[in-house]
Amino acid sequence: MRIAAVAAHFGRDVEACAAKVEAIAADARAQGVDLLVFPDATLGGYLGGFGAVGETGLPPALAADDAVFARLAAAAGPAVVCLAYREAHGGRFYNSAVCLTGDGVLGRHRKVHQPAGELAAYAAGDAFTAFDTPLGRLGMLVDYDKTFPEAARTLAADGAHVLACLSAWPASLTNRAPRLVQDRQSRLFDLYDCARAAENQVVVVSANQTGTMGRLRFLGQSKVVGPGGDVLARTWAKAGLAVADLDVAGEVTRSRLVLSHLRELRPEAYS
């Protein structure tokens, strides 16, 4: 299987974002990519800064059945594509991810864990559920979700061999480093990606925004991580694709041959 994580910037113009998704998907398909993961806030961009929603305005809100998703499903063709948007539902708004292929929607996720700056813009989701795709069982995490080990563990326990992590992860606002690679959030972003993969012995496909939005400077650093916690492909701060070829089922099975973290759990000791 060929897997790719996107590093790119997405702004407020949904039409421009959709066109960018189509162009990147076409390029990825030409490279033989089977699974393509976009960053958080793919359609309409992210917030402008924690506690500063007004700086760039709120991202446009889309219903889950908006026509743009049929358009992007067609762009996905035989590939499996994960992307994110601000969802409007029942008078509330969610930071949501959707997994598409040419046949339609395969799965959805609403971001559960919220940093303080999101509380005015989004309601919280309430579940982590894996789902079947033509490429195997997959689960999605949005941004801050991956900070919490229980989120990834729940998806792995539900049978996911691949975790798609869609992020708009910025550099530190309180302790800026002169270079992104030296930033505290840069270190944590990489640490969480590798730890979640190794803890659960799964493949993590981590996509992140680049560029800036209001006060936020996004890290990039998209990557594909193997079930041993090893980075198989990555980008840095600039836009690009992190592409890796691997036998997901084979690698996950091999990583669990001697030590199987899920099988050897002792949940009775955690209560």
Automatic annotation (TrEMBL):
Keywords: Hydrolase. GO terms for molecular function: hydrolase activity, acting on carbon-nitrogen (but not peptide) bonds, in linear amides. Gene3D superfamilies: Carbon-nitrogen hydrolase. PROSITE patterns: CN_HYDROLASE. InterPro entries: Aliph_Amidase/BUP, C-N_Hydrolase, C-N_Hydrolase_sf. It comes from the Bacteria. Residues 1-248 form the CN hydrolase domain. This is Predicted amidohydrolase. It comes from Klenkia taihuensis. The lineage of its organism: Bacteria, Bacillati, Actinomycetota, Actinomycetes, Geodermatophilales.
